[in-house]
Amino acid sequence: MNGNNKVKVVIVGAGLMGTGIAHAFAIAGFQTVLVDISAESLDKAYSNVSEILKTGVKLGKISELEAENALGSLNLERNLSVGAKNADWVIETVSENLEAKKAVVRTAKEVMAEGGIIATNTSALSVTEIGAALPDPDRFVGMHFFNPVHKMKLVELVRGHATTDETIARTRDLCEAIGKTSIVVNESPGLTTSRMSALLGNEAMYMLQEGTASAEDIDTALRMGFNHPMGPLELGDLTGWDTRLSVLKYLHSTLGEKFRPCPLIIKMVAAGHFGRKAGQGVYKYEDGKRVPGSGLEVKVS
User: Which residues bind NAD(+) (predicted)?
Assistant: First the structure.
């Protein structure tokens, strides 16, 4: 896509995913606006994008000028109506709450450019149901990025009931412009990757609960035996077990018994042990780094 600096992309939600998506568009030269009602979240996101860029410079992946230009392309805004004004694209990454997502897309639609496309980064909720909040859901699509966005190349494009071929084609071009590979998925609970990942992580937690193997060994088995970059328990800590539990509950209700959440996940979430963001999950974390040998031990009677 030529002339990226003339295309305005708005990301709503300055959490982990929103930050990564904002970085991806800023480094590709798009006019990038990150929107969040929390000034603290926006400041943290800007700092994290800056650190990713600095690391890229140190590793020789980008030049200092490219890093400076990327930061210059990134703007922060607390008011969605202001931030999304005349936007060509809006990508919402707010919490996995149907009504919250509907409210975001309705507000964005009122102020964005005519013909603009709205995307949702949801990993489990219905694209069709969210898009139904719009008068023209044909220009609404799922755009599921993966964490960490600056390292993961895949984007799942989710076709809702009303999503047109033109919308899919334009969104695939957008993915290509930021160096991502896209696949197209017809809407289904859990899509492809979330469904498989949820099942894998849930089974890993059942094995941990049953004392089949230690947390470290379960993760090592997947990394070394199947060449996964990260074990299922490490990934759950990174994603957040509260998020994982929400997804599993949804999949259990829609796809059946095989997705029943492991009781250990329910206990961990009740205890506030959400993972890396809480400093405690299956592993303990200090300053965002995993503490060696801190894997959860489950005593089996």
Answer: 13-18, 36, 96, 101, 123, 147, 277
Q: What angle do CA 95, 286, 237 make, to 5 degrees?
A: 40
For residues 233 and 236, what is the distance between their CA atoms, to the nearest angstrom? 5
What's the Cα-to-Cα distance from 33 to each of 17, 86, 89, 167, rounded to whole Å? 14, 12, 10, 21
Burial (Cβ within 10 Å: 0-12, 13-18, ≥19) of residue 77 = middle
Contact 77, 43 (CB under 8 A): no
Q: Which residues pair with 290 in a beta bridge?
A: 285
The amino acid at 192: T
Pick the CATH number of 8-186 from 2.40.30.90, 3.40.50.720, 3.90.550.10, 3.40.190.10: 3.40.50.720
Residue with tokens 């690391």: 55
Number of other residues whose CB lies within 10 A of the CB of residue 193? 15
Range of weakest confidence among 133-137, 191-195, 273-277 = 191-195
**Confidence class of residue 1 from pLDDT cuts 50, 70 and 90?**
very low
